[in-house]
Amino acid sequence: GAGVSQTPSNKVTEKGKYVELRCDPISGHTALYWYRQSLGQGPEFLIYFQGTGAADDSGLPNDRFFAVRPEGSVSTLKIQRTERGDSAVYLCASSRGMTETQYFGPGTRLLVL
Amino acid sequence: RKEVEQDPGPFNVPEGATVAFNCTYSNSASQSFFWYRQDCRKEPKLLMSVYSSGNEDGRFTAQLNRASQYISLLIRDSKLSDSATYLCVVNPGNTGKLIFGQGTTLQVKP
After folding, report:
1. How does B4-39 read in b/e, with b if 16+ C-beta sit within 10 Å?
2. Interface of chain A against chain B, CB under 8 Å?
3. Tell me, what DSSP letter sits at residue B59?
4. What are B46's strand-pairing partners?
5. Neighbouring C-alpha atoms within 13 Å toward the C-beta of A25
6. Which residues lie closer than 8 Å to B60 by C-beta, 6 or more apart?
7. Would residue B62 be called left, alpha or beta, if left means φ above 0 and alpha means ψ between -120 and 50 degrees?
8. Searching chain B, which residue's CA lies closest to the CA of residue A100?
9. Chain A interface, mutation test: which of B31, B40, B43, B100, most A Cβ atoms within 10 Å?
10. Which of A29, B25, B47, B58 could anchor a disulfide with B35, C-beta 3.0 to 4.6 Å?
11. A33 to chain B: which residues are within 8 Å by CB?
C-alpha cells in the first residue's frame, strides 16, 4: 500500500518568508509525527498528533513553528519568518497507534537563503 | 550530555566482516528501544526493536543492558548493501516521541 507522502520534496525560500510543509500519513494511522534532521545528525522530535490533537509539541523550537491536523489525517507544518537555521530535512512519520512502529516519509528538504 | 549517544564513525569494514555498534542513553526510565537504518538522502526505516532478552534477525543481533543503559547492534557477514547509517533510537516514556542518536555510518568495502 501507499506509504507516508510529503510535499514538496524540496523547498527553497528566502529568509523571512512563510512556508507550509504537508504530510499525508498511511491510511488508517491515527498517530502522526514531525521530526527535523540537520546534516550529520539524527532526526529531532518536533510534535506528534493523536487524531486531531497535538499530544506533545515539546519539540517545537519556538513560536514560529506551528502544526495542524484538522481532520485527523493530513498534517501541515507551518514556519513563519523563516531563518537560515531552519534549513533541514523535515520528516513526517505515522503509526497505527502511539506505541506502534513509526513509518517515515521521504522528507521535505527546506533551504532558507 | 545528549540523551542518546553514538560514535558517528565511519566504520569501514571489508565484506564478510563482523561489526558492532554501541549506543548509550541517559534516561533510565526509557521504555523501548530500536535500531533504524537510514540510507543516504533517504528516510529512516526500522531495522529491529531491541528487547532485554536480546533478539536476532538473520545476520543482525541487538542487545539491551538496562543496568548500564547501553544498546548494541552486531552485524555478521557484512554485505555491501549493509552500507548505511544506523540510528539508535529510544522511546523515553512509551509515548510517541522517539529520541534518535546521531547515527553511526557503516561503509562495507569489496
Report:
1. bebeebebebeeeeebebbbbbeeeebebbbbbbbe
2. 31, 33, 35, 40-45, 48, 50, 55-56, 58-59, 91, 95, 98-99, 101-107
3. T
4. B36
5. 28
6. B35, B47, B48, B73, B74, B75, B76
7. beta
8. B96
9. B43
10. B47
11. 96-98
Q: What is the pLDDT of residues A51-87, one digit of tens each?
A: 999 889 999 999 999 999 999 999 999 999 999 999 9
| pLDDT tens profile B30-46 | 889 999 999 999 999 99
Contact B73, B35 (CB under 8 A): yes
Give the nearest partner residue to A56 out of B97, B99, B100, using CB atoms.
B97
Q: What is the pLDDT of residue B12?
A: 97
Q: Cβ of B61: how many Cβ atoms within 10 Å?
A: 17
Higher pLDDT, B75 or B2: B75
Least confident of A82-91, A96-105, B5-14: A96-105
- The phi-psi region of residue A26 (left if phi > 0; otherwise alpha if psi is between -120 and 50; otherwise beta) is beta
- Which grid coordinates belong to B88? 539508535
Q: What is the CA radius of gyration of chain B?
A: 13
A100's grid cell:
506502534
Q: Are A104 and A5 in contact (CB under 8 A)?
A: no
pLDDT in tens, A9-34: 999 999 999 999 999 999 999 999 99
